Amino acid sequence: MEHGDEIGGEHQEKHDEGEHDDEYPVQEAAARLEEFKKSVEAKMALRQSNLNPDRPDSGFLRTLDSSIKRNTAVIKKLKQINEEQKEGLMDELRSVNLSKFVSEAVTAICDAKLKSADIQPAVQIPLASDLFFAPSKVQDFLASLVQGLLKVFAPGKSAEDLDADKNSRAMKKRSTLKLLLELYFVGVVEDSGIFVNIIKDLTSTEHLKDRDATQTNLSLLASFARQGRFLLGLPLTDQDILEEFMKGLNITPDQKKFFRKAFQTYYDAVVDLLQAEHAILNAKGELSEENASSYEKLRKSHDNLSRGVSSLAEALDMQPPVMPEDGHTTRVTSGEDVLSPVAGKDSSALEALWDDEDTRAFYECLPDLRAFVPAVLLGEAEPKLTEQSSKTQEVPSDTAPESDKGQIATQESPEVSADSGIVLEDKDGKDKDKEEKDKEKGKEKDAERRVEGEKDRTKGLDGTNLEGLLHRLPSCVSRDLIDQLTVEFCYLNSKSNRKKLVRALFNVPRTSLELLPYYSRMVATLSTCMKCINHALTVVGRRIQHFTHKKDQMNIETKIRNIRFIGELCKFKIAPAGLVFSCLKACLDDFTHHNIDVACNLLETCGRFLYRSPETTVRMSNMLEILMRLKNVKNLDPRQSTLVENAYYLCKPPERSARVSKVRPPLHQYIRKLLFSDLDKSSIEQVLRQLRSYLGTNVSHTF
């Protein structure tokens, strides 16, 4: 028994060491679990209060204000539901009698532009409907509200209207789907069949022909899978509390089976589409100048689709699809690259691009801002108006508008004098152009006014400002925090604010380099909707070139900060690989002093990523060989020599044989399980009986 205690004590010490090493992740997981439990318990309490309401009598409702003026003012406030105004709005609702304004109240709630943080306050209003509606009107209000919310998913507009307002409709669908699920959890929505119709439409393969619709549906389905995991039969976090919560939800096994099959079928179809596009993008041959722009559009569309598919796979607890590498795909390499041994390496032998799933999700699964933020706040509404006006505007072949004077003509006008070369002018055409330009300017002014009005409204609702947002920026040290801050910035989007944000992002303290991955994620997320953010990359590139030519040691920390920023942006595929290689080559050409530190920091940041990427593995391998040759021929001090070796082996670890584990008989494995896994204070007697029964008949065995 003393021997058993010794083994158990040794096991406990190892266990304590493991707990100490993983203390922070365990605490974080425990905090998330506790928060999840509180959320489920709150839903259970709301559901219980909704199923057993304490309704006031009709005499109480007569004492409330039923005047048109007061009720109209309250109904207007229903369109601006948010967490800050929730308490004040609920107090006002308790003081009025809305029994005669059921349809108006339903319309106001359905038209409200809700954000994710506004969903819970919006759920409180139907739950408290007994306080400001007559008993005979409560069910009418709830039924009308559900039907009104479902209209968001029904195509009721023309194709032109849908195309002009596509982003705002996508965001409205997302918030409405979240609201319907929350209403289902608390018992306001009793029929889970409404989600069957919604998912059936979202997973229809007919939508795959429209790329914007596909992106929207992927975002909606991923949100639905994360919020309603039990509807799909996915494993749950805390079985006990969720089983108690799910008892009141009338979801049938057939419905669960339908949801799971619909998601799986749609996921397979989208993966097939993704692989087909991947094959097109990796086809052999050279692109002509005419097809270069089309290729770039397809590549960006493919990247967005890949992020959407990865997000859906993560929500479904599935591995994201791995795109097949064609052995005949043409790679841009030099003559030396072809002769190098790495060039002949099979693509299947390449290591995984990311070390783990969390790292891959951090760099590849970016939030879709169009699903969270109205299009007008992203600056996408004005170009659409311009495109529509340009479609209706027919420019005569014999005239050239003033806006096109700087452009190169691709075709000669048929009405050009052979002698003088002067284009014939038409006065009527000029008048038409002038009128259409005036109309276009009027439309642009209206769009600008709508943008400013939307921004002013959202600023007033949020009660935030750019200074406060920038003050919170250094504290965003997790993926969720930086994503939330990115969405909040979109509600403050303006040209001056973007400049201030870029300045704040690239002035990160040189002693806080751990913030660079999160800042880069913010840049990558914003660049999907704001092309002007790419100007930030130009700023950093100029800084790198400026500091590279300086030979002093005073700004070495600033150089390291900037080069690591470039490396992080490269992993998000914002900074091109060519920029990284040009910076690395500049350091290797003058491999002395601070250039050694800069090159090593660049390799530590993105060298492993570029070495594992099929497109750049050959070039990075050559760079690493040059690095080691320079180390061997130069007389470096021990610190610099260690830096170079660490950077090299971080990018290209030495090949090691796989560790051979000792094979033990099944009986030995069982005894080790008893001693190292099952043995604790509460199971001493049980383990002792098992060991005695074994040792009594098999005393000759040794371990």
Portion in strands = under 5%
Major pleated sheet: none
Tell me, briefly, the overall form: globular
Please report the first level of CATH classification, the CATH class of the domain at 466-651: Mainly Alpha
Q: What is the rounded distance between the termini?
A: 16 Å
> Portion of residues in helices?
55-70%
Low-confidence segments, ≥5 residues, pLDDT <50? 1-25, 326-349, 382-430, 458-463
Summed over residues and divided by their number, the pLDDT gives a mean of: 73
Pfam families: MIF4G
Biased composition (Polar residues): 386-396
Protein name: Regulator of nonsense transcripts UPF2
GO molecular function: RNA binding
Describe it:
This protein is mostly helical and 703 residues long. Among the domains are: 42-190, Serine Threonine Protein Phosphatase 5, Tetratricopeptide repeat (Alpha Horseshoe), CATH 1.25.40; 192-282 and 294-324, no CATH class; 466-651, Serine Threonine Protein Phosphatase 5, Tetratricopeptide repeat (Alpha Horseshoe), CATH 1.25.40. It contains 31 helices and no strands. Helix 23 (516-527) packs across helix 25 (556-571). It is globular. Mean pLDDT is 73; it is low at 1-25, 326-349, 382-430 and 458-463.
